[in-house]
Amino acid sequence: DWAGYLANEPWAGYVERVKQMPASRWAILALVNAPVLAILFNALWQKIAPRKATDPPVVFHWLPIIGSAIWYGNDPIGFFQTCQERYGDVFTCILLGRKVTVTLGVKGSNFVLGGKSTAFNAEGAYTHLTTPVFGKDVVYDCPNEVFMQQKKFIKFGLTTKNFRAYVRMIEDEVDEFMRKDPRFVTYQQNDINDWGSFDAIAAMAEITILTASRTLQGKEVREGLNKSFSQLYSDLDGGFTPLNFLFANLPLESYRKRDRAQKKMSDFYVDIIKRRRANPDAETHYDMIESLKEQTYRGGAALRDHEIAHLMIALLMAGQHTSTATLAWTVLHLASRPDVAAALYQEQVERFGNADGSFRAMEYEDLRHLPVLDSVIRETLRVHPPIHNIMRQVREDVPVPASLAAPSSKSGNGVYVVPKDTYVLASPIISQLDPRIWVNAHTWEPSRWSDSAGVAAQALRTYTDEAGEKIDYGFGAVSKGTESPYQPFGAGRHRCIGEQFAYLQIGTIVAALVRRVELRLPTKVPEHNYHTLILMPKDPKSVHYRRRRFD
Ligand code: HEM
Hints:
The protein is α+β, with helices and mostly antiparallel strands. It is built from 22 helices and 14 strands. Helix content is about 50%, strand content about 10%. Strands 1-2-8-5-3 form a 5-stranded mixed beta sheet, sandwiched between helices. The protein has a 3-stranded antiparallel beta sheet with strand order 4-14-11. The chain binds protoporphyrin IX containing FE. It comes from Mycena sanguinolenta.
């Protein structure tokens, strides 16, 4: 008898006081308790709300709207692996109000990356991040069919002739950097007994931008790096962070700097284009601006100057963090595995060594005959793929193939359906670190790539097989690659077109470094930092070096 019970003391007094509480008190109480109620309601709703038989399982989360974002943001691999154990390869999670269906494993990647562009749309997932940085009318700010033509134009600029010129330029830049940068002062002192050190990310970021600007970006951009271009780049880069991915526009100084830098950088490139058009025969250029100037869309329209400018910015941003991350992880691992570094050095001696202990210069063709260097880069990209998750916006209801995942009951035709207006996410890193596929999956072991009958070689064949399935999405025939457990450059329609350039750049830089210095790591190889858009190493990431020989 609740009424009788509450009529007795001490409850009667409380009840009376609650009844007499002023409205303002009620309002404050409601406000204070609203989040608690929302959390409780959200938790209860997940347990009792009727669920469509076709809905993939939803990852339980306490916080409404935020959903699983905190766990995912701090440790996406741990989060996905735990969800995989609980729910299987297909599940939906809430990430800051977005409903994201994650599809794991080789079949899961194939589902997202091999899907039709009318169903799975990259623009819808990325444009709010990329358009304010790249600028209008390119990449994800134009119809997909137009972007595919733009990808073709970029491919035209990545010629063997240009690549041949790049190897020498890159080695030159590394040489100059090591002879002048204060981080390499111990190297400059020509003392082979002393150890110096450099921060893996900071040093590799600088070498990456110096080499990319000298080659793909062109002479004017390289010269600009010593002047105002560096600041513009830094301001623009400040608009390429996880916060920008979450919120396209905020009233913050970093957003204002981003917008000002975008405009100035766009003008900077347009100015280069105009000057080159005015003096067509002044000198030979091997860069992308020169190639884009000549390209025309289907129907005959030339690329407009601002489109060339914005594509150049897109290429700068696409290559900068990905190559920096790969280089940073590579030097960290080499420094922690002197045996691998020694094999890499020996490979250089055998192919390039002169009788007096010096090295001949590298040529583009040499890069195909350096299996140790190749496997070091491949293995780094397996364990630390810079872009570890790939998202698409879902534009129509898409059934999940039963071979990937299906509800246990046969209702709803026995398939899951990813609903329109939500998102899908593939996570190549999960397959690349899957212990069911790779031996010692989490160990960085480049030698796994030299076993031609092994898992790694098989995965690579599926990814790149020249004789395999080829598709032309509008930028020339490419291997489909969507069914490989190794996809550091993505797969399908949005596959990276910078792969060959990245290999050339990273390979030449690593070779030039190991020729000049020995590396050691005083700490363990750092863990992944998931708070950056691209997978970077956490602190400490200081690499020790010692000059190899006197000059
Ligand atoms: C696309 C990785 C370097 C230009 C991609 C994608 C990945 C990737 C995973 C697919 C993204 C998606 O499907 O949403 C990498 C890695 C690199 C690298 C790991 C270096 C180690 C470069 C460089 C350039 C570049 C140097 C430019 C020269 C592009 C472009 C796309 C792309 C234009 C196409 C985006 C699309 O079609 O939506 N890259 N990339 N990348 N990358 Fe790279």
